Amino acid sequence: MLTLTYRYRIYPCAPQELQMLESLETCRRVYNYAVRERKDWINSRKCDVNACSVQSEYIIGADRLYPDYYKQKNVD
Fold it and tell me: Of 2, 12, 40, 59, which is least surrounded by CB within 10 A?
């Protein structure tokens, strides 16, 4: 089986390059926010309620569901 791939070079002008960098920065921030939200949820369930330090632990309510991909992408 022969697989062909194509490679295209682009040469954006300065405003286009700036717009692409801003878009990538926005994507990076959204992704990092989603990962942090999941990590915080997981870390809030690692220690016993009576053993967690209120000053150093981020406590999320027990009724809050895990923020999976489908809940995070919902824009309601």
Answer: 2
- Whole-prediction pTM: 0.69
Q: What is the mean pLDDT of residues 46-61?
A: 67
**Predicted pLDDT at 76:** 57
pLDDT at residue number 68: 85
Give the span between the Cα atoms of 38 and 70, in whole angstroms: 12
The CA distance from 40 to 67, in Å, is 10
Where do we find the tokens 């286009």? 16
Q: How far is Cα 39 from Cα 21, in angstroms, rounded to an integer?
A: 27
- 3-state DSSP call for residue 12? coil
Q: Are the beta carbons of 42 and 68 closer than 8 angstroms?
A: no
Domain boundaries along the sequence of the chain: 14-63
